[in-house]
């Protein structure tokens, strides 16, 4: 059966969209469970969030007879991804604990814009004025969510942006890695090393948990694992340019969950900020598709213009 054939009535693109929607919902649920767990240290929450994924990834490595340490030439990037990704999660969890759930998750969705910036700086990928304008507009939307007050009230919002910075750096490392490592190897190394990095701090700042809090953190770990693997499967079925925009449904899921569980909705300034950030992402989505279409058309012209070998 070819990769473009339909399975269970769905095309590969629809499968990709389905998995990215599952990932977005799972991430929203993870954030809710983290918030429901109450005032526990972020280090403690991150440890439980990652340890579940580490065990699942270890099982997949064993099943596929893969590597637990990765290729020697990949390790530097994997370790850098681990450090930046761990910092990103710590900041994101702090924001989740102190902001409206959908606000925290929308700030986290600035990460693709940071990927553009960091890919330009570190990978020497080109960036043009239209992308720069879209990034500036998105940050204006972030300011509407944060509502700068130049006092301690800004700290959770700043943490939310720093979480996106960490995630953007981590995704840039993954971009540089390309397909040099199987997804379960990179997930295992990240999850296991991240757990080890935060473990001393989690023990030092440890706060005794009730069984309910422990169960909530384990559920957060399960949802984070589902989100991570669903995202990987999504991009296996369809390219990012076709489906990435659907990841923003996470914010809608978060707003509904926030209203249902916490009785809290974002204010109008935040909603306007969501719209500005989403509009920037949507513009970048269609702009990328337009560039791909132009490149494909130019490729066809070159192919037709090349004489056929006799």
Features:
about 300 residues; mainly alpha; 12 helices; about 75% helix; globular
Outline:
With 310 residues, this protein is mostly helical. It has 12 helices and no strands. The chain has helices spanning 12-36, 42-64, 75-98, 101-108, 111-122, 129-146, 155-177, 183-204, 211-237, 240-243, 249-262, 268-305.
The string of secondary-structure elements, in order, is HHHHHHHHHHHH
Q: Roughly what is the average pLDDT, rounded to an integer? A: 86
Number of helices: 12
Q: How many beta-strand segments?
A: 0
Report the structural category.
Answer: mainly alpha
The Rg value, from CA coordinates, equals 20 Å
Helix content: over 70%
Write the layout of secondary structure elements.
Layout: H1 12-36, H2 42-64, H3 75-98, H4 101-108, H5 111-122, H6 129-146, H7 155-177, H8 183-204, H9 211-237, H10 240-243, H11 249-262, H12 268-305
Textual characterization of the structure:
This protein has 310 residues and is mainly α. 77% of the residues lie in helices and 0% in strands. The chain is built from twelve helices and no strands. It is globular and about 65 Å long. The protein starts with 11 loop residues before the first helix and ends in a 5-residue tail after the last helix.
């Amino acid at each position: 059966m070819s990769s473009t054939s339909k399975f269970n009535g769905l095309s590969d693109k629809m499968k990709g969209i389905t998995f990215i929607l599952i990932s977005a919902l799972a991430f929203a649920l993870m954030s809710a469970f983290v918030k429901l767990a109450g005032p526990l240290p972020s280090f403690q929450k991150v440890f439980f969030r990652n340890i579940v994924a580490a065990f699942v990834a270890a099982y997949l490595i064993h099943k596929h007879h893969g590597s637990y340490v990765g290729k020697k030439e990949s390790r530097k990037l994997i370790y850098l991804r681990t450090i930046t990704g761990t910092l990103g999660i710590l900041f994101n969890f702090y924001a989740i604990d102190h902001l409206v759930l959908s606000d925290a998750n929308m700030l986290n969705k600035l990460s693709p814009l940071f990927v553009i910036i960091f890919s330009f700086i570190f990978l020497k990928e080109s960036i043009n004025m239209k992308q720069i304008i879209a990034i500036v507009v998105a940050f204006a939307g972030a300011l509407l969510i944060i509502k700068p007050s130049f006092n301690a009230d800004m700290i959770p919002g700043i943490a939310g942006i720093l979480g996106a910075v960490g995630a953007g750096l981590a995704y840039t490392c993954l971009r540089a890695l390309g397909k040099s490592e199987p997804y379960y190897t990179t997930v295992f190394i990240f999850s296991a090393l991240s757990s080890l990095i935060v473990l001393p701090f989690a023990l030092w700042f440890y706060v005794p948990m009730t069984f309910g809090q422990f169960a909530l953190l384990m559920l957060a770990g399960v949802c984070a694992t589902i989100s991570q693997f669903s995202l990987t499967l999504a991009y296996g079925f369809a390219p990012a340019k076709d489906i990435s925009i659907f990841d923003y449904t996470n914010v809608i899921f978060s707003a509904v969950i926030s209203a249902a569980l916490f009785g809290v909705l974002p204010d109008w300034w935040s909603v306007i900020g969501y719209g500005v950030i989403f509009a920037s992402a949507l513009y970048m989505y269609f702009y990328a598709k337009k560039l791909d279409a132009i490149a494909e058309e130019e490729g066809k012209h070159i192919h037709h213009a090349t004489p056929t070998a006799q």
